[in-house]
Prior knowledge:
MetI-like fold, 2 domains, 14 helices, about 0% strand, flat, membrane, transmembrane, transmembrane helix, transport
Amino acid sequence: MSTAPARRWTRDRVERAVLGVLRWVVIAVLVVATAFPFYYMVMLSLRDIQDLILRPGALLPSEITIGTYREVLASEESGGQGFLTFIRNSALIAIAAVVLTLAIAIPGAYAVARLRFFGRRQVHFLFLAVYLFPAIVLAIPLFVLFTMMGLRGSLVGLVLVYISQTIPVTAYMLRNYFETVPAGVEEAAAIDGCGRLATVWRVTLPLSKPALMATGLYVFMIAWNEFLFALLFLVERREKWTVSLGLSQLAGSIEIPTTVLMAGSVVLTLPIVILFFAGERLLTEGLTAGAEKG
């Protein structure tokens, strides 16, 4: 009775087996390293302060409470921290920044990608020149300018500051994507009687949804999380504060329990996490598209 010959452990087989195991080990480590801090933050926000004092190292609460979120979201008149107002302010600023940034960056990016004019290449690189200067270098001149214009302490002034930083990089990203849209598609639209604006609206923008989603989410994240300029322009008017300013106040107070601070952190982080996972596919396509021609 013959038996099948034993498979030899060649170098290639050993390397494949080791790399196969290491791949899952690395994935598991990365998942734990990225997910555990958020998990622990959520668990702390759902714990009672007495439970935290008695069992500081516990990973699961003995009893779940949402009282911390009530305290964070309730208005100051009700004894809370007023985060609902901060969320509204942050949402208004972030949405306005996204809309204005895309409205200005789309025509600029399309012009650089499709039109031929003197200095075209120089304009392309000037898009990113603003990032040669640290934000703190621009903070003082902008503070003085907006104070003279009467915009300090207003949400409108903060939106203007944000779009001045997001328009260049948004135009740069969209320009790379617009160059991947086949010119023949736009030429066919022109043959059908579409003008330049109609072609952009009916052809180019629908084909560029992944890039628009990616850049829009990028701008939203910047406006939602930004702290330095919000502190400079809004610190004197609490009713205009953003979520990042409110969280900074919680972190700097010794009277605020850790559980309430973690609830504020969840409120700041959760909208971005939801938006990211909701648009993850389009975000990935938008960030990688145009890499060959960029």
